[in-house]
């Protein structure tokens, strides 16, 4: 049997994805209404996020349930942002398109501006697997030290601060302030709330200050604590799950073509994390082969396409790579 080249394998995968998409669109005419579907999903996830917050405010659900449900709702908005970056919805209607961009940012306030991230993400597709891929390196890809990797995965701001010196040397055009300022004002507000609550309770634990704190400051703190439960902590859960999954499945170093940019995560070990990042590890590799495709279509065609990918040399559950700071290495036949 003739062994296919990398280019032939890539072409076969792309052809299979596009063919399956065409079949789905033919079978389900509703898929033609892509703009409407995207907007409906956005409004549904936003309503779910607000609804969960209201239920928590009324003491109908406990804090843990609010955090879990809000994180799941926010994970949908990440997929929508990803699609919006690739202009899958209302590309010719800037008012609605930008409204959707702003909404998904507000639902995920611990991320930088989606308008800035568009530039970063499109660059990711061109440089995936190399030291120039800022998007993936910001979330831990290529870091071997497990403690440092965990820190970067959980706290993007600390990760940015810690890695600035290295990024400045290795990544062309990198600017700390360019990335930092891309979070203003939404992400900036997120970190003000997060660190205000952490600092207050840490200090109060060692040196009780609550009794002497002005009433107005305590009222503000109560609002901050409510936001922690309904938005801040859910997004820590969501983004940590996503960052762990994406930094585990993307290769770093030794990458020469699209087959070597990612592997597919189907292991049950990743199931808890997939719950909060909308099955990202199982479907994102499809996106690398065909970027201009709505996320729900990737979910619909993934079962068939993953089998095709397996036949055409895409790796699955490459845990050796994760142990070796995501390096792509040849496997013994």
Automatic annotation (TrEMBL):
Keyword Transmembrane helix in record: yes
Keywords for this protein: Membrane, Transmembrane, Transmembrane helix
Transmembrane segments: 30-50, 56-77, 147-164, 176-203, 215-237
Residue intervals of the Fatty acid desaturase domain: 61-318
Top-level taxon of the source organism: Bacteria
InterPro entries xrefs: FA_desaturase_dom
Record protein name field: Fatty acid desaturase
Species this protein is from: Pseudoalteromonas marina
Organismal lineage: Bacteria, Pseudomonadati, Pseudomonadota, Gammaproteobacteria, Alteromonadales
């Amino acid at each position: 049997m003739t062994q296919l080249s990398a280019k032939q394998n890539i072409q076969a995968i792309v052809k299979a994805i596009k063919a399956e998409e065409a079949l789905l669109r033919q079978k389900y005419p509703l898929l033609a209404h892509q703009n409407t579907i995207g907007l409906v999903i956005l409004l549904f996830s936003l309503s779910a996020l607000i609804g969960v917050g209201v239920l928590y405010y009324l003491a109908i659900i406990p804090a843990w349930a609010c955090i879990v449900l809000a994180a799941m709702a926010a994970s949908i908005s990440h997929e929508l942002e990803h699609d919006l970056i690739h202009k899958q919805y209302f590309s010719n209607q800037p008012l609605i398109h930008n409204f959707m961009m702003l909404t998904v940012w507000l639902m995920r306030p611990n991320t930088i501006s989606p308008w800035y991230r568009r530039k970063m993400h499109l660059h990711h597709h061109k440089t995936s697997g190399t030291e120039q891929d800022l998007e993936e390196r910001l979330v831990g890809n290529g870091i071997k030290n497990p403690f440092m990797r965990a820190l970067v995965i959980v706290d993007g701001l600390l990760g940015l601060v810690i890695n600035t010196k290295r990024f400045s040397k290795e990544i062309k055009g990198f600017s700390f302030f360019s990335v930092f300022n891309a979070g203003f004002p939404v992400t900036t507000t997120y970190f003000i709330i997060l660190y205000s609550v952490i600092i207050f309770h840490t200090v109060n634990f060692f040196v009780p200050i609550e009794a002497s704190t002005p009433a107005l400051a305590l009222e503000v703190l109560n609002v901050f604590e409510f936001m922690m439960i309904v938005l801040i902590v859910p997004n820590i859960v969501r983004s940590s799950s996503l960052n762990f999954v994406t930094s585990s499945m993307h290769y770093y170093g030794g990458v020469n073509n699209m087959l070597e940019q990612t592997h597919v995560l189907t292991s049950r070990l990743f199931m808890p994390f997939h719950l909060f990042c909308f099955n990202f590890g199982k479907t994102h590799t499809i996106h690398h082969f065909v970027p201009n495709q709505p996320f729900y279509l990737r979910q619909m065609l993934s079962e068939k396409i993953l089998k095709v990918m397996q036949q055409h040399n895409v790796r699955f559950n490459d845990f050796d790579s994760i142990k070796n700071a995501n390096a792509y290495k040849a496997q013994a036949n």
